[in-house]
Amino acid sequence: MGRTYLVEEGIGQYLTELSTKVKPYVTGLLIGQCSPQRDYVIRAVRTPPKEQQQEEESLGPPKLASLDEEWITTHASQVSRMLPGGLLVLGVFMIATPELAKDGQNALRKLIFSVEKSLSKRRLWKPTEEEVSDRAALQICSATKKVVCRTYDVQDPKSSAKPADWKYQSALTASWVALGCTVNVNIHIPLLATSPNHDLEKNTKNGLNRWSKQIEDSVFLINGQVKDEDAELLEGQKKFRGNTQPSTQISDVKVLTQLCQGASPRSTATVQVCSGSINLRGAVKCRAYIHSNKPKVKEAIQALKRDIINTLSDRCEILFEDLILNEGPQKKNFGREYHVLPQRLFVPVAGSSVMLSDYKFGDEAAGEIQERFVEMLDQPVQAEDMHIAEDISTVDICPVTDSPSDTPQAQLTKATLLLKLQQNMGLVVAAAVAVLASIFSFNYFSD
């Protein structure tokens, strides 16, 4: 028995319209949510066309072997940034002419594994053992409109195709649950002096990796309560039957970060010689969506945790991409600089209770965001529907110097002074203890 995919009814119309324009094939992504019982597909998004692709089509009959994997996986990475917690790229689809249908499944299989490999590289979290790892490969014949859905296990490189059911359903997300929280961020990432050339992006990722483990170990209060992970999220709540209008139930979540890491309250201080630091500060808005078919508390919390981790990681990625675009890839080291992280905004999806998101720099016009939604998600967006969810968050990059000890005292920045104070605090305390001990010893023997 294969997996069942419940699909938003509007996707059928979208795919039918694409099939009338196909010349001679089109690929795209399936977006939705996995659950132990079934999967939900809430959007299908075509791959943005390339100018080069149009030129190749004019040269002769194209072949599926010429599929641009890099272009498709890059699109998947961009789209994944625009998905709130609980949503992911569930698979890929292809609409092709009968002549190309023969090689369709092989091409789809290759794409599924390429997309998953690309997405997994960017994640700061690891999938759980019980998590669904099947991804969908949907093939549609442009002539006969025949739909064939199969799945592949992306955790098994030798996985073979398994049949799956593809069922359309109206108002699929009408009663989904939304969880929202605001997380205050104050992350200090040291730049070690032992490394002569500091790669800021790599250091930031390492620092976020450590922070993500704190988020994983945090306590989550849903509507002010700590709930058992295996309990039903909607337990005790009334269910309104026959409601086909989008009406999301929103749960307020508080995140309590543990101060003490590990089983033992004892900890060992580590002194590291640093020549600079990166400081991330601000408050980020996070959101996750979960299906309404008896969801477990642990499913909802996991979706929100991943959104918290993803949203900060994605913003830093976007910032460094912007710096490289403006400064050039050769600029790896920076002086004292302040940067503003892009702000998160949410946009409603027509006919759905789920909202998608994007990130906006302060100088970006609304028109640029609208163009990005059309290009990445094939969805027109009205400027008045874009809701910026939060205040500004910043990145403070303190100076990176080759030899901190050679820096004149007058030129030391406040951040460097703080670093030196932190590094030498242990020595100061030790010296004070030694002085007190000698005074006590002297007084003792004098008496």
TrEMBL record:
Described function: May play a role in the trafficking of a subset of G-protein coupled receptors.
Family: Belongs to the ODR-4 family.
Annotated Pfam families: ODR4-like
Subcellular location: Membrane
Bilayer-crossing regions: 425-445
Name recorded for this polypeptide: Protein odr-4 homolog
Cellular component GO terms held in the UniProt record: endomembrane system; membrane
Organism name: Quiscalus mexicanus (Great-tailed grackle)
Alphabetical UniProt keywords: Membrane, Transmembrane, Transmembrane helix
One Gene Ontology biological process: intracellular protein localization
